[in-house]
Amino acid sequence: MSSTPSNTQLPRHIDPRKFAQQGLDLSGFIAVSELTRLAEISLDSSDKVEVELEFGVDDERHRVIVGRANCALKVTCQRCLEPVEVVLDAEINLAIVWDEERAKQLPKALDPLILPEGAADIYSIIEDELLLNLPMVSYHDEDCIEQTSFGDDEVEAKTESTKNPFQVLEQLKGSPKS
Ligand SMILES: [Zn+2]
After folding, report:
1. What is the Å distance from ligand 1's center to 80 Cα?
2. In the chain, how many domains are there?
3. Angle 55-69-141 from CA coordinates, rounded to 5°
């Protein structure tokens, strides 16, 4: 039982079946820069993923990995193109299986993780889980683009446009001829 979230970097290559057999826990962080697909969308290379995993064998003798991985990722808001933070929180309920056949026989609560014997890249396994939690598009919660709205697809943008656009135009032209 670790009382504080581990400050150590997670090892990349481990033997998940051996870990399950021995009932080991694994916790630590992964630098986002180590995760190529997440690093591609992250604006801050110092972002980190926190990981807590428990390996074990369940009552039905599945070798399982349960735990969670989470990170706050700085990405580009697809509305205003400024940085926005998205929180990814992946709950991990994996059962290690040899092939598709056995994957199909798993109970619904477990997601199959098809692995050959030996060491596996736990980073890419965790990255897969995080990417499942990534929203299709990332926006600020607030109306981040109100002032520069083009008014074509934003319903909220309408509320502020009570000014008569022609009045504004006249002001811009300067004082009328006298
Ligand atoms: Zn925004």
Report:
1. 4
2. 1
3. 160
